[in-house]
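If you are new to this repository, start here. Below is one unmodified record pulled from the training split, so you can see the exact layout before writing a loader.
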Amino acid sequence: MLNYFIILSLFINIFVLLWVCGTLIIFNKSQFVIDAWGKSSPSHGILISVYISILFMSCILLFLYIQNPISISIKYMIFSLLSFQVIYKLTTPFTVNIENPIVISNLIIAIFHIITLIVIHG
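And here is the target side for that same chain:
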């Protein structure tokens, strides 16, 4: 049986990361991007690469999970990906201003991913 928390967490990743990567690539000189992520720099390129990696893995894992929702191995891979994201999202308030819109959205997504992790762990 499909777990809808898993599906929603992966869909959130895909939707948010498509928007974020597109915004960072297309509007990298816009004031919104500068206010939220800072001026364009090599660190933006690294960040985009990390985001694309998470996006790619979310797509693959969503496909694999829908094909085989009872696979423990696939659930462990999803658990690993979401755990990684929760850790980096929960540490951003300590490295970036808490009032930054990216930090706030990271915290909201982290809460949902934590619920999914609890559901996966059972």
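Two things worth knowing about this chain: The mean pLDDT is 94. The chain has one domain: 4-121.
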